[in-house]
């Protein structure tokens, strides 16, 4: 069966497996103190053009969001996020479990607007009762968003400036960052993220690793962050598992190459959907394509290819998602296109 | 440099890597719903002779302790543990971070005694003010313990009976379980754990996996445990990474074989320490050997072999730990023995 | 200066103070075990026609919401509330601080509709990813609401039935319950609340007590609720302070009489606002009146009478709140009416 | 029945009730912003000779400990306390419920020794694994302690210096502070506490108030402490209730006078116990007297006087506590002495 269900359906890129095999019998220190973690950190610093960045490796996205957000917030603070943000909806309350409210703002195709954030912050501090409310302590955005859309450099800069004005950090969830960076025409680069964000993570799990996300603090890191990672149950004894993978991902541009493959495949598929007159739910440039299908058509297609149910569109139609990945082959796309009839 | 510092210094057993390679390009469902996870569960159920057991895979020990303990306790309850228990000392407050007190009892070489637990429980319910105190809601033990010691089947049974009398679950932390089960002369088996514990975990990280622990609920599982796993940031998108590893570990007795290698190597080393008149800090049957070294001797030896600082013994002596593992080679032990002079 | 700012600006009803004085030198058991607490419980049970109700006294509204909601929810659950609910906005994150998400639904004049709740619950369980989301574990409503509106008996029954269908408790925040019950024409009584809610609290602080709210569990109480109260720092050593006050409030119908005074005064004031052509922001039957004032008018009036800023209406107008209370005198209302010009 | 069970068995001092009555109909701002709170703050600042102190009023001791400790600790920190400290034993896990471990040290008659704390801190930072452990983030002591003992000024200074050396705050729980300050021969005064502690609270509930504790931050207060108080459910709408009481307690030396009465009565009683050859469990100078009674004698005496069960001494003897209070009359002591036979 063809699979376009998501971007974490297969294992790891061969180069990652290869590196795991090569280093397997080396005796290394635990908890992220090994030389592969250090090498990966150096390579990520170089890619971000940010030689002072502090970098940590965690296992998964929800975990990373939980640990970073909890570390950045004071007890009296919550995190601003889009109502559709991953932390708002699909993390089983991981943020609230650490005692912090997610302050949900309206979104536009998954994105937060700087002006919306600014209005919220002005409204908060303008409210005479704000000391009885949750202080907005940081801003959380995703790139690409849950709707597959991208921020422009200007938009990131605008949000960053709002945050700076209120002295709250901007944190970017890059679970699918590799795909976002690889989109033709995007003007957002890793050095931009290092410039505009106070923290962000470079997603590995969905971009070719077995597991792992690299958290980057470009300027200042939370105090005793490693202890907080441990306290959240997120510190791997064999930290090498993550370091080795990111070392491979940031060697010879593999991370971006993984991204580019998905984008090439998505573009092929997107073109075919357009040619055949399919209806797009939202215009997306990265590796996720949202299509409105008539329900009968959805059922028929579902017998031959895996895709993701997104949401009900109306009585007779459904929004579904097709995702390509670092591992999607051209023949898979061609077969899918053939099935589209 | 020779390394006897710990049992998680190298990567994974070859058979595990092999299986990861073989399955790498298979497109599989996420979050533990794949066929390798299911196969691993079946094999663990068989090994435990417990066909109804519910089994989950998590990434590491602290994470597993945190999620399981939080899931088993009511808000008004804490967990009884030895003062030296891993959750009491070396998890950076992971249990308290979820709102629960660790009720620390005295230990004997790392072990809790059934009688001590019974006395504590009787004392608690006999205290007229106990409603102002933290209710003892479960018992946590480790096997092998932090001191490398083992419970006997009788001791487990006794503790289990105390727990049953007070209707509180018994949870066993098996981070090094493979080594404990492989000790010659132990009468404790996996089916015994399934019989006496309400929850336990089979440690993978320290017994030959890249990462991963298998949580076993022999009879009853906490409600919506998967959601709790997610909420704690512990649910891997590529759950296959854990399932595949445990599938390999429970094929052809690999898990126990890994354990046995470490025990054979430890026994060789133990014999050598004894022959050469070294002083044992505590008698241990499994893969950890605790030796009291004169400080100068410790320094000299430390130049040629890695071992673990344990604790200060007196002004002139220090307790150190030598650990063998699934991956320790005979020549390494022989070289170390030669260095002991 | 006249004060219509809120309903907690003065001390306690004379009968309450009197009772505190009379009982002052009695030596009584602590923590709510005294005979006045017991007497108050009996009187509240009688008023609710619910002889099996479990009743606890806490100090304030946010505290009560926090303790009750945390006690009723499992770790994987959150609480459904109106976006404008007190717990959603004005409790500084007290619910999230205990690890639970507030699941915010749209409101109509502060009220939740049974249908809206039912749709949300159906949508949640219909979502294939719902195990990755926060389970809706209870419903929170306020009566009167933050907008001063009231549920009808039918509306409560409808919400109650939705909750029952999904086996989740309905909890009603009665911070201003005395005023709601005293409204002419309301068909909601204390026995109705005991019938339709799984938990509710009878607000004392805003209805004539120095402090104190009475939590009622008509059928089933959370296990070890007293210990949870203590754990949240909410158990008074001199529990008598609360018991004596509620004993007075539920003697000779004082609680309702307090409510009725506020309603009589509010009705007088409401009539005057209407006669003079003021614009009501929302129609409210209880002790809070929301008026849209032109900004200049607001400033002038504000020099002679205290009222509460509510929210900006437009560039030139503001919504303000006038509240009457158990303690509002007729002459105060008359003076205010004279000022309205 | 005579009552020496505790120091919170009766209501409030007459002067407090009188002040509540006098101010009852005044319309005042809520949440601690009223003029009585401000007046009480000023008087406490004067009594502490600390004009810059920040002062907050909370309702009870466990609540105060929970809010203050949570506010002072970072997420990765715990609080050092005596194994017998109130927060360690009798607060139902209130500290852990906010995510922080209580790091329990041995005590001597309820007291922590500066040297013991220093050793612990040196040991912690000397441990190479300390980043995997809970950081000691503050020190908690009680004065008088749970065993009724007192620190000397020198002892407080020594502990304070250890804390300063490690840059962690010293917090003193003064639930019974009024009794401690009133002991003849103590050299500890309120200005001393302001000098040596970073935070402490002046207990009202047990020293003549209906409820209420005054938290003093002599130098620096936690950021947005009021919001944290609210978030913990500890902010009273009618904050006046606490301000008025402390205003009375700190007028004409009432707080210390309340303390002195209890000490005079306790001294009378102590002398009588000594004269009659009773066995003291521990020497105590303040308002609590711990006596070892033969079990039969305990039963007989228990028929005529209330006292507190403390702990089992041996098979045939029990430790019990007799407490005097601000409200104990001379005739009560005389009757008790007569009963002692």
Q: How would you sum up the major sheet of chain A? A: 7 strands, mixed
Mean pLDDT of chain A: 97
Order of helices and strands of chain A: EHHEHEHEHEHEHHEEHHHEEHEEEH
Q: Strand tally of chain A, please? A: 13
Q: Which two chains have the most extensive interface, and how many residues on each? A: A-B, 55 and 54 residues
If strands are numbered along the chain, what order do they take across the biggest sheet of chain A?
Answer: 2-8-7-6-5-3-4
Name the beta content range of chain A.
15-25%
Alpha-beta content class of chain A: alpha/beta
Q: Indicate the radius of gyration of chain A in whole angstroms.
A: 20 Å
Structure explained in plain terms:
Four copies of one chain form a homotetramer. Chain A has 341 residues and is α/β, with parallel strands linked by helices. Helix content of chain A is 40%, strand content 20%. Chain A is built from 13 helices and 13 strands. Chain A has helices spanning 14-22, 35-47, 61-72, 86-89, 114-126, 153-165, 177-182, 190-196, 225-231, 240-249, 254-275, 295-302, 330-340, and strands at 2-3, 54-58, 77-82, 102-105, 135-142, 170-174, 199-203, 213-217, 279-282, 288-294, 305-306, 308-314, 317-323. In chain A, strands 2-8-7-6-5-3-4 form a seven-stranded mixed beta sheet, with helices on both faces. In chain A, helix 2 (35-47) runs parallel beside helix 10 (240-249). Chain A starts with a strand and ends with a helix. The mean pLDDT of chain A is 97. Chains in contact: A-B, A-C, A-D, B-C, B-D, C-D. At the C-D interface, helix 1, helix 3 and helix 9 of C face helix 1, helix 3 and helix 9 of D.
């Amino acid at each position: 069966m063809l699979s376009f269900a998501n971007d974490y359906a297969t294992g790891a890129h061969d180069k990652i497996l290869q590196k795991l095999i090569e280093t397997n019998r080396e005796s290394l220190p635990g908890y992220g103190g090994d030389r592969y973690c250090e090498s990966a950190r150096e390579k990520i610093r170089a890619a971000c053009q940010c030689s002072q960045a502090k970098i940590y490796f965690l296992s998964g996205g929800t975990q990373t969001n939980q640990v970073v957000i909890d570390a950045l917030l004071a007890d009296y603070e919550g995190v601003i996020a889009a109502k559709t943000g991953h932390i708002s909806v699909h993390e089983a309350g991981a943020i609230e479990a650490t005692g912090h409210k997610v302050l949900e703002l309206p979104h536009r195709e998954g994105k937060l607007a700087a002006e919306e954030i600014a209005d919220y912050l002005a409204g908060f501090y303008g409210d005479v009762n704000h000391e009885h409310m949750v202080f907005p302590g940081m801003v959380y955005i995703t790139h690409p968003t849950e709707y597959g859309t991208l921020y422009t450099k200007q938009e990131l800069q605008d949000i960053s400036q709002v945050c700076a004005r209120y002295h709250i950090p901007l944190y970017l969830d890059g679970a699918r960052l590799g795909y976002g960076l690889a989109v033709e025409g995007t003007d957002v680069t890793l050095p931009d993220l290092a410039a505009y964000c106070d923290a962000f993570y470079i997603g590995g799990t969905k971009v070719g690793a077995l597991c792992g996300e690299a958290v980057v603090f470009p300027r200042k890191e939370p105090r005793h962050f490693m202890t907080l990672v441990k306290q959240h149950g997120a510190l791997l004894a064999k930290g090498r598992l993550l370091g080795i993978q990111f070392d491979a991902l940031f060697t010879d541009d593999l991370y971006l190459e993984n991204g580019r493959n998905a984008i090439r495949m998505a573009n092929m598929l997107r073109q075919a959907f357009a040619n055949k007159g399919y209806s797009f739910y939202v215009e997306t440039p990265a590796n996720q394509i949202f299509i409105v299908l008539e329900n009968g058509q959805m059922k028929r297609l579902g017998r031959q290819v895996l895709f993701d149910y997104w949401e009900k569109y109306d009585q007779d139609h459904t929004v579904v998602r097709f995702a390509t990945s670092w591992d999607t082959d051209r023949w898979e796309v061609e077969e899918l296109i053939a099935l589209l009839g």
